[in-house]
Amino acid sequence: MAGTENSAQQNAEETEIHNTQGSDIVDSHFDELERSILYISRIFFVAWSAPGKCSAENAFELAVAIHGETNGLQIAYGVMNAVKAMRISRNSVFKFNNPYCACCKKRVTECEGHFLNAIHLTRHKLHSAAEVEMMILCEGNDASSFSEQVNNLCNRLELMQFNGRK
Questions:
Q1: Between 69-89 and 127-137, two packed helices, what is the crossing angle to 10 degrees?
Q2: What whole-number distance in Å separates Cα of residue 51 and Cα of residue 158?
Q3: Are 120 and 29 in contact (CB under 8 A)?
Q4: What is the CA radius of gyration of the chain?
Q5: What are phi and psi of 108, to 5 degrees?
């Protein structure tokens, strides 16, 4: 992972415009677990939008580094499925920040905020509010698959926490 990450990081720093807009992740209401989901999802976004910069495998490696092998793989798999379901429903570009730029990764775009809010609200059993976030992300299109995948992810997270894990 290190070689791929360093190469992607170098490419990002050389070619990307730094995002100084959006909210600061530190000032957000998202907890450490939700922030890790954002970082993992960003790797998937880069892998699918610019395959030469990194691969989806990097998201799994990051998840394992943060959460350990068993939990990390389950979290990455759940995030991947949620992101894939959301991508299928959307028509426009999902705006995300560069996970390899020290400046950009501290900011949360509007799209990322809706994505994390959908997860945050589902985790806190605020399903009606979570459905609104999912409808926004899916641009009024069918969000049922996305909703199902977010629920699956949140059920995994709850089980992990119930079992005393991250």
A1: 60
A2: 32
A3: yes
A4: 15
A5: -120, 120
pLDDT of residue 49: 86
Residue carrying structure tokens 């009606």: 128
- Packing angle, helices 127-137 and 110-123, rounded to 10: 150
In three-state secondary structure terms, 46 is: helix
Residue with tokens 């070689």: 3
pTM of the model: 0.83
Burial of residue 15 (number of CB atoms within 10 Å: 0-12, 13-18, 19+): exposed
Please count the other Cβ atoms lying within 10 Å of the Cβ belonging to residue 4: 14
Give residue for tokens 């890790």. Answer: 36
pLDDT beneath 50: ranges in the chain: 1-15, 165-166
Instruction: Label residue 138 left, alpha or beta by phi (over 0 means left) and psi (-120 to 50 means alpha).
Output: alpha
Which tokens in the block code for residue 57?
């495998």
